[in-house]
Amino acid sequence: MAEGAPVVLSVGGSVLLTGENDAEFLRALADLLRRLGREFPLVVTTGGGRTAREYIALARSLGLTEVELDELGIDVTRLHARLLGGLVGGASAAPPPTTVAAAVRELGHVSPVILGGTEPGHTTDGVAALIAARVRAVRLVNATRVDGLYDRDPRRHPDARRIDRMGWDAFRRVVRESVGEGSAGQEFLFDALGAEALGRAAIPLLVVHGRRLANLEAALRGAIFDGSRIG
Ligand code: UTP
Questions:
Q1: Residue 227 and residue 214 in contact, taking contact as beta carbons nearer than 8 Å
Q2: pTM to 2 decimals?
């Protein structure tokens, strides 16, 4: 069984499915996670991305409640966990755990443990943060579709600046300011609950581009990487 300090990875749904070379990327990501999962205890959460947002938008227009919309989103994140888990194979292909406690228990005999969301009201980044705090992870790596934390959305603002280092207090402030009303499917900079949990536990959060696998591996290993570091 993998030994040493646990590491947690949160992969955005928008990294998993982009419409470009998805099969090839998923295979390479699964190979990386299988390999690293043997070296140290690893937990991976998978986001729902565009698919979750499409279901949530449709269901919202049909009048489903916010909790029901969150539950739809959770099911899509679990779909992605099953997809990645099946590719990694072995014990990682078992049905994804549905609670933080179950994921922590599984880490005793499975690595990587791959799961989606747990309960309504937060995101898979939040789930990753709660697990990281619970297992005393050495770091949480957030694999996103941009190469770090920016002062503004870099896809909308070409002059956005990357912030390579930020302390927890400043980050929590930025996260709080970026949080809207917290409705289902809303895109956050990072889950507010998750930011609180990580800050309290003083677990560093590393933000990297999820499709650059050599760099993602460096971040997961705690080596020098290109991206942002909070804490
Ligand atoms: P995601 O974790 O994918 O959120 O969950 P996201 O911010 O859209 O992340 P990306 O785009 O994949 O990076 C999708 C939706 O599922 C519900 C929420 O409505 C969330 O917006 N969800 C997810 C929960 O309610 N609880 C969870 O634990 C996870």
A1: no
A2: 0.95
